[in-house]
Fold this sequence. Notes:
Chain A is mainly α. In chain A, about 70% of the residues lie in helices and about 5% in strands.
Amino acid sequence: MPRKPESAPSLEQETVEETEVLPFQEQETEAVKRLTIEGIRISPESKKTIDGFLAADVEEGYRRFAIDWFDQNKDQIQKEKGVPIENVSDEWKINMVLGSKARGGLEAAGEIKKGEYKSRGSLIEKIGTLRVDLAKEQMSPETPFLLLNYLQLRVERKTRDLDRLRERAKGGDEDAGIEAASMEKQLGDLYSARKELAERAMQENLTEAAEQRVFERLAPKDVYVARSTEKKVKEIQEGKNRHLMYGEWRDFMSMPEKQRREYEREIGYHLEMTREEFDERSKDKGYDPRQASLEYQKENYYMFRETILMLAQKQGIGEAAFYGLLEKGYQPYGARVEKSWLGKEKIIIPMPGTPSQPRRIIDHREMSKEAFDSFVKETGDSYLEEITSQATAELGEAWEKEREKRVRTETEKRLTEISESPKFAEGGIERLYKEARQRIVTEYIKRRTEKELLERKPEQEATDSTGVEEKTIDEKYLKSKIKSSKIAFKLGRDTEENNKAVEDFLGDLGLSMPEITKEMYEAARKKKHWVLKFLEETIKKAKTMPKVEK
Amino acid sequence: MTTFTSTKASLEKIIKSSKISKEQERFLLDELPIMNGAERAELLEVLKNVCAANKEEQQVVDKVKNYWK
Lengths: 550, 69
């Protein structure tokens, strides 16, 4: 015999019994408020950006319609207006078609909903509907996905336009360049707005997800830098050395010939060959005069370079130190040993004058051999250290740039996926409504559990020395009433699962877990408010056991 | 009396088709046998909201699929 309902009046009972199973009758579903899921909000800036694009599209839609409608109806318009309308501008056509009658226009905007223009009118209306929803504080669940889908197409078209403008700008079209810069900014703003919209709709941080994907594929920064440093150092060093050497040669060649010969006598070596010598050496090479001049320059440069390196080497100055000294303004190839009047050896390293002054030794440093060797080593080490630091910094920057570029690419890829694929839109919508259902039922369960707690009369245990503890557990138990609604979820049909849930619950109260069998759960389930009763009895049993060490 | 049983059966059917989580489904099915009429009526109202959400979800999905067509 089914159990008699305890307190429901017959009217209520009738209502319950008469209610249909799914599907509900129409009037019932309409009577139920439109459920709300937490609407989606985006920043005012993003709303403004998106609305700007939509508004521009609506305007453009009407303008194109006006021109086409005018062209299609121009005979009629001419008859009606009695003015010549051949060769009028597009602006004139638009003003005529859309302008108010008071101002001589035709007020024909409504024609966009008719005949062959119907689809255009429908599109404009749909965009208008989205704009209205976009303006609300919280958008309806479908709006973000519809906007993303629409804007994706717009972005693709605008990007093609931007590429064309950039090509024209490269060809010297300044106006195209200005327009391209403006379009780039617009697309940048739209990207940020779309990204925010997608993140709110999908509840996903696109940048973080992209960073994770990039992290998994890109070599870590320190590994990349370590791997690439040697090559980069070589590249920087070669460039720097070339620059310093060329500067030195240019300074030398800028001196008048007489001075260059004097200088060569000072250092005791030729630093260039004469033209006659070159012509003699290269007579079999068949150079024309222009080639011969170029080759002569080249040969002199190589000769200069090799000679001054050799001269420096003779004084124990290696390549790194050589260029380090050049960088500091010394002339390492002019270094020489001299003896003081006391017979002590000293090393002179010349420091030439400024490039604008005649190349003469106007200053020099003197030092002992030991000091010189130490100075040379320090200069060489310091030169290489600086280059290595520069290499590390440049590689680090290159890695950061590459990472940023890849994160941006991955983010855009994901944004495109979400915007283009109905699958992702459906997934996002599904997630929103899943949360809504979860919320409705959770609130019901909480209400039910709290109601049961209030209805229940707390049992007073005999107070003794454990009186304080009893109170504590009772209070704790009451505070955990909300928790009991969670434990209720976990108390499914699997005994092991149930025991785990109960063990966790008791553990938080500092109590041990008594033995509970499947039969005990089954028996408990037969009672009204079985969850709370069951927990109460279990707590009583657990209190008799040794406490759990926390 | 039979209607009570069938109402319980109806609610059970609704619970199982509501697309709620397994944990919540289990809880409600466990509670159902010991609910009185008023409690079942309350549960029914809750499930109506859940079903309305499901219907709305489908409407939103259909709208997104067909809006720009």
